[in-house]
């Protein structure tokens, strides 16, 4: 039987990471139609409410049920507003390794939410799920995603040449596919040891409260 991640909620000082709900459809559709999301991900464009509903009710639950990963909606603790998503995917249960991807809503950028969410998921993976490796891949031109990797403590392992297809705006306002390199990052349990001890205690307390 294929292992699966538990259906849980994770909390931090400012965020709640929880399963997506049907009420998230409008906010998810709006977030995924942002130009930066379109440029650096492979989601459909335009991203309709039907796409959002299918992701929330079918595709995301299947990721967990079939052992491939788990999807979290990232919301503000105080307002409950959707500010992003975190997706664990391509999970190798034998190696205890998985890949992480994330999206931040345009209205929530610049607040450090992505790095906070990634760190919370990493701690949960390492402390509670016994994982030994978290991998992240960022397109060569996606500097915002690379900054998240650096802030989280990820180590740059190298470049996969010509390994991704991004999108760029054309002169007529449409989109065109372009090939680009991927930068591979990794985070191991020992890479978190140098983080601030107070932050470590807060994260552990949050995991205990929300798990």
TrEMBL record:
Domain (N-acetyltransferase) ranges: 15-171
Source organism, top-level taxon: Bacteria
Protein name: GNAT family N-acetyltransferase
CDD domains for this protein: NAT_SF
